[in-house]
Amino acid sequence: MIRLLQIIYIFLLVIITLKFFDARFIDKSLINSLLFVTLTGTIFLSLPFVFPRNSGFVLPVQLITASILFSIIMANISWEQNFKDSLIETTPYLLWMLFFYLLYIRIPIRILENIIIIYGILYIVLYFIQLSNSHNVLFGKPISGGDEFTEQRGMTRIIFPGGGIFILSIFIALNKLTTKVKNLWFWLLITCLGLLIPILQVTRQFIAGIMLIYLYHFTQSISLFKKTFLLLLFGGIVITASYVEHPILQGLIETQERDANLGENYIRVLAGNYFMTDFSPNTLSKIFGNGVPNWGISDYGIFVEILAHEQEYYLSDVGIIAVYAMFGIISILGYIIIWIKSFTIPLPKEYYYLKYYLWFLLFTSFTWFTVYHYHYMISTVFVLYIYQHLYEGQENYAKTIAEESKPFIVNN
């Protein structure tokens, strides 16, 4: 019974932390209240377990969590933002602590995979519903800030909320497509949609990141000749696509050429430089971060809002630099350790999707909010928990083998 309640809790936690895919037809204050209460409960549930045995990903998650907590104090010291505002704004980022609770209750990996796939399918269904009703904003908000989704880069552009759970689900499908015998058509369909939907959303870093992961997955275990052939074929397709007169392709090419011509004047480069060098008002904030601004409410939040509206300097556009600006150097150290371990800690082939997800975060970390936004937070925690669970299992197995291989000595 307890296990069932835990599973139901984790299942509901996903949709709540995603704010019901930012549904516009549900009262916003109700969603925010439910989110705050749920996250507060999750934090208190996780608090007794934040100091497990230090191995694998435990230390980096502890470092990130500690830096987030300390940023509440920094927002008060550096910007005089009151603790109430900081607590409300910072609580969603403390979902990192769920990692420790999951390690304690040991939810089976198969159950988590099923939850992720269910929400991945839901994401796909809701995206196409929204796409077919672009004149009526049901989920999220238009990039243009208007009342309906408009055409950009040759397509009605809808960056559908909850991308993290979708990205993780398609990497699971990709992995199972080549390691499972059953339900191959199902996994193939999800894998194909995993490439189609980012193309329809016309988001360059998503398209490039997913295509690179797909290419790596299908070429990692084949001969050098076949690998070279596929790489040349892929390159040929990319070159050929640049000459195809299609609105989506032409929109992507024109945007890329425009940004490339801007060079150092590209707005994300300017924003990144500013948040790295000029944003923090003192040396302490340059080390420990500035905290999370209460957008448009506190003086700190008003300042960040003015930066966005007048200078077009958005924290969400600079990814890992935003993490540094809010949470400081220690949080960056935590992310670096995570990415290093994603390359050094081995995994069984059927779980390579964990590496793929972390590599996707790394690939998009300088241009998008994948590393810290609530659309990605819970899927990141799931990935690190599963990775840690497998790592500890391998570690315990190695210890058992080592113990059993010791010579048996009888004392006379």
UniProtKB/TrEMBL annotation:
The keyword Membrane applies. It comes from the Bacteria. Keywords: Membrane, Transmembrane, Transmembrane helix. The keyword Plastid does not apply. The chain crosses the membrane at residues 6-23, 30-51, 57-79, 91-109, 115-133, 154-174, 186-216, 228-244, 318-340, 352-374. This is O-antigen ligase domain-containing protein. It comes from Pontibacter diazotrophicus. The lineage of its organism: Bacteria, Pseudomonadati, Bacteroidota, Cytophagia, Cytophagales.
